[in-house]
């Protein structure tokens, strides 16, 4: 890839990363950058899929009232905190 195409700011970052010793060459920096972009694209695709599933669930009526879910979660975490406190007292 040509330095002029990369741009001055990104070229400076590439140079800085090589100078830091984190990467051995310009190719290593660019390879890692492209790999991370690929990972990000996969994550975004999974997120899009999960969002579509969620919307399908809403349309089909497969939902729970948020207040009921929150109450259930609060009860669960309060029970876990209580159990941990009891365990800590008995260990002391």
Describe the structure.
This protein is an all-alpha fold and 92 residues long. The protein has two domains: 1-61, no CATH class; 64-92. Helix content is 83%, strand content 0%. It has helices at 3-6, 8-19, 26-59, 66-91. The protein is flat and about 55 Å long. 1% of the residues are buried. The mean pLDDT is 94.
Structural classification: mainly alpha
The whole-number mean of residue pLDDT values reads 94
Structural domain tally: 2
- Distance between the ends: 63 Å
Shape by Cα distribution? flat
Spell out the key features of this protein.
single chain; 92 residues; mainly alpha; flat
Q: What's the topology here?
A:
Layout lengths: L2 H4 L1 H12 L6 H34 L6 H26 L1
Short structural summary:
With 92 residues, the chain is an all-alpha fold. Helices cover 83% and strands 0% of the residues.
